[in-house]
Design brief:
The protein has 88 residues and is mainly α. The chain is 77% helix and 0% strand. Keywords: Membrane, Transmembrane, Transmembrane helix.
């Protein structure tokens, strides 16, 4: 199987996607800074939901995990393209 060498336009698309994802991630981080407004409501929810997902520092973990998952999905998508790109 031959190695996949992306063209210039494909690399530009990947770079644009990564920058877009980073913007979304920073936007999530800014929204997290505003969570104090919602925190009284979330404490009420947390009384019923004991999973610990709504604890104070879990917002950073959740946004970071979401960012990593999206990046991995993009890598897998382009990896899947590369598998079928040079088929005869």
């Amino acid at each position: 199987m031959t190695a996949f060498i992306p063209t210039f336009s494909q690399s530009v698309i990947v770079i644009k996607l990564i920058t877009l994802l980073f913007r979304v991630y920073t936007l999530i981080r800014k929204r997290v800074a505003q969570r104090i407004i919602l925190f009284k409501f979330l404490i009420d929810v947390n009384i019923f939901y004991k999973g610990g997902l709504l604890m104070k520092n879990s917002w950073k973990k959740v946004s970071l995990i979401a960012f990593i998952v999206i990046v991995l999905l993009i890598i897998l998508y382009f990896g899947g393209i590369s598998l079928f790109w040079n088929q005869p």
